[in-house]
Design brief:
Elements: H1 2-19, E1 24-25, E2 42-45, E3 48-54, E4 73-77, H2 81-84, E5 95-101, E6 111-116, E7 119-120, E8 122-127, E9 130-136, E10 142-145, E11 156-163, E12 196-197, E13 201-206, E14 212-222, E15 225-234, E16 240-247, E17 250-257, E18 262-269, E19 283-291, E20 294-303, E21 308-310, E22 315-317, E23 320-322, E24 324-328, H3 342-355, E25 359-361, H4 369-378, E26 381-385, H5 397-418, E27 424-431, H6 447-467, E28 472-477, E29 492-495, H7 507-525, E30 529-533, H8 552-567, E31 572-578, E32 583-584, E33 595-596, H9 609-618
Parallel strand pairs: 1-9, 24-25, 24-31, 25-26, 26-27, 27-28, 28-29, 29-30, 30-31
Antiparallel strand pairs: 2-13, 3-4, 3-5, 5-11, 6-10, 6-13, 7-12, 8-9, 8-11, 14-15, 15-18, 16-17, 16-19, 19-20, 21-22, 22-23, 32-33
The structure holds beta-D-glucopyranuronic acid.
Length: 626
């Protein structure tokens, strides 16, 4: 009998051994430059219909599905699986994606990479049945070099296994015991946990001889001269190159020489055309690698000359006071879920402009790169947020350490990817973090827990400033949340719903609480303040003679009262309405039909009365408080 068990055990070990594969961790630096096409670089977008198979028992690896899935469904990439299949609406467990592709013969001899722009939340990647790598995290790209896995002149197969299981050790956090949300699926955040390949997957080639890995452009201004401080990182043995800045009738070139793969230069642009919301002037920065007089690689990006600064009461762009009128948003649309859809993005910019907004926050995760390009071109100021939403800075030490690791990874990914966009004026390291000793716990936090939370949270700010000393850094504080963290921020940013979640029905009461709270915060911290979220659920088409909760009239009056408070205070620097449009979230008793209805537009982008009100108030008075 014993012998029988020993044999079974041995067979189990052997079979596990056979299936144990080594997955490289994705390297954040590999996503620093978005793939482009020019005479040295190529790319192929793998968007389209992929094979798709649900793996609720997580048996795919053991059954070697990486060699090809059978009896599968079809799925569109980009797009969230939860919206494409009825039975998968609330499904967050493992799924497999598979696509066959050819590499053009002309790419032979180049370095070939794959960039997966969003595999939420945890993904493993195989090419031709061989384990390539893995990545943890939502709504951020990752890339792997593929050369050793590819076959030339034959079909290749990419397989991606993805899951979005909610867990207390992940960011954002889910399945938190005792969480006040009481929602399904059990996410510790208020938007639907849309899963899978939400953005496109791109194959791209880079010159194998040596290529540009990263370009960091830091702008400055000296009187009328614009300065672009450029740092280039490359790989390979090439030692020299050029940086050329083009735009507005000027072309300025400088030679660069590399030492330890890095080169820096500073380009002066006389009479520079600065970037601002009114005049979103852009310059092209082209970097060329050269060897023996011949070009080996070239990369161009668009950026702007502008500086951001802050004092006790104001934020300045190029030395001029600015006021942020705008929204918190979501990437959310029927059928597409959190998937990238260019027509929706274009429409959203059109509608934001229609209201007269000049800014938005990428709540509550980084958006597709296209958003930042559009913002650069249309003069929107962006508060770029990481996926660290509803972050819990206390609780079990192991889980806390895991979350801290992922938060830092996000900061690298987000800053490497988005650092050259002039539209990004602030980084937001976290939305509504808290310092609870236990997950989901209410009540006071002990001194020791607070101290631990403070020093860990400070690391987020230190890292952000180290990676990018040129932008403002904030976190967004919740109602009744810890206030001692405001010491760390450049601007006090708060989300407030007085008159909605508290004193319901009384806008007057709510706005007067807001007014005195803002005064207290400013008196204590001597920093400019911004309300990064305020709003109320509004059922489109519901009306009342006198404002009443959920009616369009209540939303207009609520927004008006909050904007009036802001207008009366010279240290308030921005008001972002929650939310631009209605969006899908987990089911709960406070979310009718699984929707958060705080949009000033419906989910289909039809205006509520509040959208018209904002247009009246903002459009004719661009950039002003009124
Ligand atoms: C805020 C959160 C946001 C929610 C909003 C709300 O930052 O994600 O959707 O509350 O309750 O606290 O509508």
């Amino acid at each position: 009998m014993k012998k029988k068990y020993a044999i079974i055990y041995l067979l189990l070990i052997i079979s596990l051994g056979l299936h144990s594969q080594k997955f490289k961790e994705a390297i954040p630096k590999d996503i620093a430059l978005v793939p482009i096409q020019n005479q040295f670089r190529n790319s192929i977008d793998l968007s389209g219909i992929w094979k798709f198979k649900v793996d609720s028992l997580n048996e795919g690896i053991q059954k070697e599905w990486y060699n090809g899935v059978t009896e599968c469904r079809q799925i569109a990439v980009p797009g969230s699986w939860n919206e494409q299949y009825t039975d998968l609406r609330d499904y967050l467990n493992w799924c497999w994606y598979e696509k066959d592709f050819y590499i053009p013969a002309s790419w032979q001899g180049e370095d070939i990479y794959i960039r997966i722009n969003d595999a939420t939340y945890f993904a493993k990647v195989w090419v031709n049945g061989k384990a390539v790598g893995q990545h943890e995290g939502c709504h951020v790209p990752f890339a792997f070099k593929l050369n050793e896995y590819l076959q030339w002149g034959k079909e290749n197969k990419i397989s991606i296994q993805v899951e979005n299981i909610q867990s207390p050790s992940r960011v954002p956090t889910g399945a938190v015991e005792g969480s006040s949300f009481g929602n399904y699926p059990n996410a510790n955040y208020d938007f639907f946990p849309y899963s899978g390949l939400n953005r496109n997957v791109v194959l791209y080639s880079l010159p194998a001889k040596g290529h540009i890995k990263d370009i960091t452009v830091r702008p400055d201004i000296n009187n009328t001269t614009g300065i672009l401080n450029v740092e280039v990182e490359k790989n390979g043995s090439i030692q020299s190159g050029k940086v050329i800045v083009k735009g507005h009738g000027q072309q300025i070139a400088k030679d660069i020489r590399f030492s330890n793969h890095y080169a820096t230069t500073s380009i002066q642009i006389p009479e520079a055309k600065l970037w601002s919301p009114d005049s979103p002037n852009l310059y092209e920065v082209e970097v060329v690698l050269e060897e023996k007089g011949a070009n080996v690689d070239k990369y161009s990006l668009k950026t702007g000359v502008r500086i951001v600064s802050v004092d006790e009461k104001h934020i300045y762009l190029n030395g001029e006071e600015i006021f942020l009128n705008g929204f918190g948003k979501h990437i959310d649309f029927p059928v597409i879920g959190r998937g990238t859809a260019d027509p929706v993005m274009v429409k959203d910019f059109e509608l934001m402009k229609w209201t007269g907004a000049n800014s938005f926050r990428t709540t509550h995760y980084p958006y597709d790169e296209g958003f930042y390009d559009m913002a650069d071109q249309h003069g929107f100021m962006v508060i770029a947020e990481t996926p660290s939403v509803g972050l819990i800075m206390g609780g079990d030490s192991l889980q806390l350490a895991e979350r801290q690791r992922v938060c830092k990874q996000y900061l690298h990914e987000v800053i490497y990817r988005d650092k050259n966009h002039p539209s990004v004026i602030m980084w937001c390291v976290a939305n509504e973090p808290n310092d609870k000793a236990q997950l989901g716990m209410a009540g006071p936090t002990s001194k020791a827990t607070k101290e631990r939370a403070y020093s860990l949270f400070k690391e987020h700010f230190d890292l952000t400033k180290e990676l990018d000393p040129t932008r403002l850094v904030i976190y967004v504080g919740p109602m009744m949340g810890p206030r001692y963290w405001f010491e760390l921020t450049d601007v006090i940013a708060i989300n407030r719903y007085w008159g909605w979640y508290t004193s319901p029905g009384s806008i007057e009461n709510g706005s007067s609480v807001l007014s005195s709270e803002l005064d207290r915060l400013h008196r204590k911290h001597k920093k400019p303040c911004m309300v990064t979220e305020f709003g109320c659920d509004t059922y489109a088409g519901m009306h009342a003679e006198e404002p009443e909760m959920f009616t369009e009239e209540y939303q207009v009056d609520f927004i008006k009262a909050y904007l009036d408070v802001a207008e009366s205070k010279d240290y308030v620097v921005g008001m972002h309405i929650w939310n631009f449009a209605d969006f899908k979230t987990s089911q709960s008793i406070i979310r009718l039909g699984g929707y958060n209805l705080k949009g000033v537009f419906t989910r289909e982008r039809k205006p509520k009365m509040a959208a018209h009100y904002l247009r009246e108030r903002w459009f004719n008075n661009k950039g002003n408080k009124k």
